[in-house]
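Appendix C: a fully annotated inverse folding record. The material below is reproduced so that readers can follow the format used throughout the book. The structure is listed first as tokens, followed by the designed sequence.
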């Protein structure tokens, strides 16, 4: 058993070194556009695992992720923008005095974005999580829209519908993928802890979980708050990636893109969310061709249809729900035990040993 543990530790270290090498190579050899897409993929991975914690591991059908992402994006942007940028951008109404001269480091702003998003998640979850199933989905979706409308109308804080520009830019893959890997590790430890077992028990059978002494409401609220905090981090990173935000970015349609990642990867699988997050991000960019005029062999020109990407995504989500409900990974996770077992079987089969 100790030997097996040592092998798994070695494999983990080798994987981390290999991943660091890939990031180093990508940062120095890929184009700016390719780096941007991979950074966006890291953000969608973060969103996917955070929503999977709520839906896949705790069994709550929540559709409020875009709202918490909006909170995180605005919090980090306002705290990191320079006073000169704020004076220039807030030309309709000046920003409130206590925020006018604030300019935090990026790392501190991301932490604050997570805390503020967690606070709103707690406040929203406290009344909403007493509902179930479709009622919970409708309530959280409504709260997300309320957050967006409040952001649109609080001009002295958020600059209203004009949004924010000149947000500090981060282009390094180390930052985005570093955050994604750290969040995945933290969530993995949470899921394998007593909290995670409580989340899964609530997901499988609330009555049985309560009979075993689990406070069902507290477990739901904790999961919802953690998911909200991680969504806030993703929102902050999104702002630093595109350097401008506005309320229209965080409409409820954005939540469906995240839901597609969760369903495609498998509800209850962090590994599936990582795979689906990268896949969906790349496909999203590739499908931009359907929104532009396409020339077929120089003989026929097919006019592009704005918004056609979302139609294709909707059809894809419907097909997955109807014909491949378990997703890519289902509830399975990739782990070294699985790999070592596979290697052992192969080694035994070559020797003619039936294992």
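Designed amino acids, in order:
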């Amino acid at each position: 058993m100790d030997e097996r543990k040592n092998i798994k530790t070695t494999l983990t270290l080798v994987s981390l070194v290999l991943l660091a090498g890939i990031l180093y190579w990508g940062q120095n050899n890929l184009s700016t556009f390719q780096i941007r897409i991979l950074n966006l993929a890291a953000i969608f991975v973060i969103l996917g695992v955070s929503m999977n914690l709520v839906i896949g591991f705790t069994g709550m059908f929540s559709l409020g992720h875009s709202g918490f992402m909006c909170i995180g994006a605005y919090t980090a942007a306002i705290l990191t923008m320079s006073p000169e940028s704020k004076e220039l951008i807030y030309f309709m109404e000046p920003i409130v005095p206590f925020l006018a001269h604030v300019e935090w480091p990026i790392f501190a702003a991301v932490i604050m974005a997570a805390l503020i998003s967690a606070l709103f998640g707690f406040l929203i979850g406290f009344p909403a999580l007493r509902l179930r199933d479709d009622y919970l989905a409708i309530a959280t979706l409504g709260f997300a829209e309320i957050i967006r409308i409040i952001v649109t109308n609080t001009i002295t804080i958020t600059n209203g519908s004009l949004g924010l520009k000149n947000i500090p830019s981060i282009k390094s893959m180390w930052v985005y993928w570093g955050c994604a890997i750290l969040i995945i590790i933290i969530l993995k430890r949470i899921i394998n802890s007593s909290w995670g077992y409580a989340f899964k028990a609530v997901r499988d059978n609330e009555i049985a979980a309560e009979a075993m002494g689990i406070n069902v409401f507290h477990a739901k609220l904790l999961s919802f708050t953690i998911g909200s905090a991680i969504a806030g981090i993703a929102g902050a990173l999104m702002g630093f990636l595109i350097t401008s935000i506005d309320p229209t970015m965080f409409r409820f349609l954005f939540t469906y893109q995240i839901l597609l990642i969760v369903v495609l990867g498998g509800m209850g699988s962090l590994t599936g969310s990582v795979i689906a997050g990268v896949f969906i991000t790349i496909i999203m960019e590739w499908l931009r061709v359907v929104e532009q005029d396409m020339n077929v062999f120089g003989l026929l020109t097919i006019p592009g249809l704005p918004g056609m990407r979302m139609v294709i995504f909707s059809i894809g989500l419907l097909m997955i729900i109807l014909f491949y409900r378990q997703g890519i990974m289902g509830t399975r996770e990739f782990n070294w035990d699985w790999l070592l077992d596979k290697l052992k079987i192969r080694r035994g089969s070559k020797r003619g040993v039936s294992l």
